[in-house]
Design brief:
The protein is α/β, with parallel strands linked by helices and 518 residues long. Helix content is 26%, strand content 26%. The protein folds into two domains: 129 residues, Sandwich (Immunoglobulin-like), CATH 2.60.40.1180; 256 residues, Glycosidases (TIM Barrel, Alpha-Beta Barrel), CATH 3.20.20. Bound molecules: alpha-L-arabinofuranose.
Length: 518
């Protein structure tokens, strides 16, 4: 039977209506331009590079004697170019859990005289310390990123950390500045941002918050500022996800003139014990991962509320210095190396999370995606001389227009992405105005089955034109491979139009769009 031919013509409008309802939803957004006042700190777009798997060695660094892969002082030239284009504002190093095992003095001086070390947390591999303080800080200068050094509290000493500060920052005559000069660097680097340990509640020493607060005060006191530039920005090791008690104790017990930032770590996954494949996942697993990513909104809201209680003037920043999607490692790779592919699911995680950070920029003033190359939700994957810029890279690059722009608060009348009995807000959005007067709106439609018709009321702001870019692919599981590195790339978005004070746009299923209004 030919069903199409027998369909009574009279049912067609009803059928079209049903189809439209099923495949397109309506969302209205208002830009409250008059309330724009908070700056989106560019450091929200920060990254994280740990001595873990092939992030540093064979990721950033291939060695300064490498003649096969083009490099500058051992750092891959293609990586440098990609990170400059990304506008990486800040880069955290050397860990992570690794930071609390790292002794910085082993990583300076002549490379062939440096002692090796065993990377106890990540795969138990032996490292030769050929990538150390000078390599990292010079690389940051090259890519235009502010360095964020994570100090060793777990297995180090106050003296060791104090001397590191002195080594990299002190302009006067001192044993450490003399040693720095002997090792080839005359001027100090003036590193401002310092982590005081990492995950003190776990790999950083399994401490209670009360105990860590005491240790923190000791380190923060003796680090002092050995530079003649701005004062230090010290980040206390913060809570694991929803451990609000940790935040409460640190805000209560650490004098506020000793701390500039309080960290928070949270990863997105299906279930911690059942993470599943990075590329072969079903819709239920997708839904669970995005739900876990959207939880970041509740986390930053609740941690901020505790901080507000002790610090109503918001002097201390909430620093989400580890975030991103976490899946099973790719088959055949070292389980301790955390190497995973990166799909359109990760693009969705990046898009919604960055919108959350933008919208909370009054308190969230730095965040660091874990991790830059070949580890967890990486922006770059490498295989010998080959390189891939992942979907996450493209989202971070599209969104970099928000860096240091002024947040425009929004109101949204959202629709739901429904799976079974569970629902999530389908559209995520943030908006900002940059110093040149351009307004940018970043939108994510997490629903893989429905387009979204968006109507944006621009209030009294007058614009002449709208343009945009979109990241989308046929399937959520789509990803770039070393054989097809350009498979997913942002393209021009023609689906938005402007009429007076109203902007309309149609977001395809599972897409990320950034609009620019002039
Ligand atoms: O990013 C991987 C690890 O996750 C970090 O080393 C640690 O801080 C966190 O638990």
């Amino acid at each position: 039977m030919n069903f199409k031919r027998r369909l009574p013509f009279a049912f067609l409008p009803a059928l079209l209506f049903f189809f439209f309802q099923k495949t397109t939803a309506q969302v209205t957004i208002t830009l409250n331009t008059g309330d724009a006042k908070e700056k989106i700190n560019r450091n929200i777009y920060g990254h994280f590079a740990e001595h873990l798997g092939h992030c540093i060695y064979d990721g950033f660094y291939v060695g300064d004697t490498n003649k096969v892969i083009p490099n500058t002082d051992g750092v891959r030239n293609d990586v440098i170019a990609a990170l400059i284009k990304l506008k990486v504002p800040v880069l955290r190093w050397p860990g992570g859990c690794f930071a609390d095992t790292y002794h910085w003095k082993d990583g300076v001086g002549e490379k062939d005289k440096r002692p090796s070390m065993v990377n106890k947390w990540w795969g138990g591999v032996t490292e030769d310390n050929s990538f150390g303080t000078h390599d990292f800080l010079n690389m940051c200068e090259r890519i235009g990123a502010e360095p964020y050094l994570a100090g060793n509290v777990g297995s180090g000493t106050t003296q060791e950390l104090t001397q590191w500060v002195q080594y990299v920052n002190f302009d006067g005559v001192s044993p450490m500045s003399k040693w720095r000069k002997q090792n080839g660097r005359d001027r100090p680097w003036n590193v401002k941002i310092w982590g005081v340990g990492n995950e003190a509640w776990g790999c950083g020493g399994h401490m209670t918050p009360e105990y860590y607060a005491n240790i923190y005060k000791q380190y923060a006191t003796f680090m002092t500022d050995w530079s003649n530039s701005d004062h230090l920005f010290r980040v206390a090791s913060g809570a694991n996800s929803s451990d609000y008690h940790w935040t409460e104790v640190l805000m209560r017990d650490i004098p506020h003139d000793l701390v500039e930032g309080l960290a928070l770590h949270n990863y997105s996954f299906v279930e911690w014990t059942k993470k599943g494949s990075a590329t072969a996942f079903n819709e239920a697993q997708y839904f669970a991962t995005i739900k876990s990513a959207l939880w970041m909104n509740e986390l930053v809201t609740k941690h901020s509320a505790i901080m507000d209680k002790y610090d109503p003037r918001k002097k201390i920043a909430l620093v989400v210095d580890e975030w991103g999607g976490w899946y099973d490692v790719e088959s055949g790779t070292n389980p301790g190396f955390l190497f995973q592919q990166n799909t359109m699911r990760d693009a969705m995680i990046a898009g919604v999370t960055l919108n959350i950070f933008n919208n909370h920029c009054d308190r969230v003033r730095m965040a660091n995606l874990a991790q830059t190359i070949n580890v967890l939700q990486a922006v770059i994957l490498t295989d010998k001389e080959k390189i891939i810029l992942t979907p996450t890279y493209h989202v971070m690059e599209m969104y970099n227009v928000h860096q240091d722009a002024t947040l425009i608060p929004i109101a949204i009348n959202n629709t739901s992405y429904i799976l079974g009995k569970d629902t999530l807000p389908a559209v995520s959005v943030s908006a900002s105005r940059d110093k040149n007067g351009l307004t940018h709106i970043s939108l994510v439609n997490i629903d893989p089955g429905k387009a979204q018709d968006i109507t944006i009321s621009l209030n009294d702001a007058a614009f002449k034109s709208v343009s945009g870019r979109i990241l989308v692919s046929a399937h959520l599981q789509d990803h770039a491979t070393f054989g097809e590195p350009e498979k997913i790339k942002p393209v021009v978005f023609g689906g938005a139009s402007l009429k007076g004070n109203t902007l309309t746009a149609k977001l395809p299923p599972a897409s990320v769009v950034v609009l620019e209004l002039k």
